[in-house]
Design brief:
By secondary structure, this protein is of the alpha/beta class. The chain has helices at 14-33, 87-97, 107-110, 114-125, 138-142, 144-148, 151-164, 194-202, 227-239, 261-276, 291-304; strands at residues 73-82, 101-105, 129-133, 171-172, 179-182, 185-188, 206-207, 212-213, 248-254, 280-282.
C-alpha cells in the first residue's frame, strides 16, 4: 500500500493525479450516458436586443395620435322685436334644445304689458341666452326714414334701452336696417342711414347686422320658408363664401312669427338639424369675430373723453 509522505501534503503530484483520475472520468462518462430517460440539453442562445438604449414598449402603451379637430363654421341664431307674444315659445324651444341664442330687445315692449314684463324676467334668468339692444321705440314705431334722418335721435333711442335694461351691453341692431359696425367690418344697406349708424359707433355701440333672414308674411306672420329650405340656404351661403365674415353666419328671425305651433315646429326642426351637422356650431353674438376688440376700443375712447 502506498503511504504518502507528510512532506507531500497539499497539491498532489502530476503523476498521481493522472494515474487515479483518468479511469474515474472514463467510468463517470459511461455511467452518465447509459442512464435511462436522460435527454440532451440544448444550449440556450442569448437574446441580444437590437437597441438596448430604447426600452421595450408594450402594445397597450402605444397610443394612436389624435386627428386634429376640424374647425367648425359658426352660426349666430338671433331673434328681434321681443318680448312679444311669440317670445315665450322661442325661449321654451331653445332652452329645451339647450342651444345659445341672442335676443335683440325693444325697450318699450318690456313695459307694454304684465305678460311681456314676465317674459323679460324669464329671459334674464335663462341660461345660454344673450340679451342685446334693438332700440327703445323700434325706429319711432316703424317710421324708419324719419328715424334715421336724425342721428341724435337714433343714439338717444339706443341709449335709453341700454340705461333702463342693458347697462353692460353695447351690442345693438338697427331697426329695419341691415348695418354693421364691427372692427373693420362696415356695411350699410341703405346709404341714407349711414350718418346715423356711424353716430352709433362713435357713441360706443357695436352695430350687428345679419347674413340670412328667415322671411315671413308681415300680415299673417307665417313663415315663408320651411326649415329644410332655410337649411339649404345656409349650406349654400357657406359653400359659396357669401357671409360678411368667412365661416361665420348671422341668422335673423323674429319672435312674433312663432306664436303658432306650426311655425314653432319649424323652428325646432331647424335647430335639431343644425345640431346634427358636424360642420356647424351655434354661438352667441358677443363671440362674433372683432366684437371683443371693438368693445375694448370703444371703452378706451369713452374713458379719454
Amino acid at each position: 500500500m502506498y503511504h504518502a509522505d507528510p512532506a507531500d501534503e497539499g497539491e498532489p503530484s502530476s503523476g498521481f493525479f493522472y494515474f487515479y483520475s483518468f479511469p474515474i472520468i472514463i467510468v463517470s462518462v459511461l455511467l452518465f450516458s447509459c442512464q435511462p430517460g436522460r435527454q440532451k440539453v440544448k444550449a440556450v442562445q442569448p437574446v441580444i436586443a437590437k437597441d438596448s438604449s430604447k426600452p421595450a414598449v408594450k402594445k397597450s402603451q402605444v397610443v394612436a395620435k389624435e386627428k386634429p379637430k376640424k374647425k367648425k363654421k359658426k352660426i349666430y341664431l338671433t331673434f328681434d322685436d321681443g318680448p312679444n307674444k311669440g317670445t315665450k315659445n322661442v325661449l321654451d324651444i331653445v332652452q329645451q334644445e339647450d342651444i345659445p341664442v341672442t335676443f335683440f330687445i325693444v325697450g318699450e315692449h318690456v313695459f307694454a304689458s304684465i305678460g311681456q314684463t314676465q317674459v323679460w324676467d324669464s329671459l334674464k334668468m335663462s341660461k345660454n341666452i344673450e340679451l342685446c339692444n334693438h332700440s327703445y321705440t323700434h325706429a319711432l314705431h316703424n317710421k324708419f326714414e324719419k328715424f334715421y334722418e336724425q342721428p341724435d335721435t337714433v343714439v338717444k333711442d339706443m341709449q335709453k334701452t341700454k340705461e333702463k335694461l342693458l347697462p353692460g351691453n353695447d351690442i345693438v341692431r338697427t331697426p329695419g336696417r341691415n348695418s354693421w359696425r364691427i372692427d373693420s367690418l362696415h356695411f350699410t344697406d341703405i346709404k341714407k342711414s349711414k350718418t346715423a349708424i356711424d353716430s352709433l359707433q362713435q357713441a360706443g355701440f357695436v352695430v350687428f347686422g345679419w347674413d340670412l333672414e328667415w322671411h315671413y308674411d308681415h300680415k299673417t306672420l307665417a313663415l315663408k320658408n320651411t326649415a329644410d329650405e332655410l337649411l339649404n340656404q345656409i349650406d349654400s351661403l357657406f359653400n359659396h363664401d357669401k357671409t360678411k365674415t368667412k365661416d361665420n353666419m348671422v341668422i335673423l328671425a323674429h319672435d312674433q312669427v312663432y306664436q303658432k305651433s306650426s311655425d314653432s315646429s319649424q323652428l325646432r326642426d331647424l335647430i335639431q338639424k343644425l345640431k346634427k351637422k358636424d360642420d356647424y356650431e351655434l354661438a352667441l353674438a358677443s363671440s362674433y369675430p372683432g366684437i371683443v376688440k371693438e368693445r375694448i376700443d370703444s371703452l378706451k375712447v369713452v374713458s379719454t373723453q
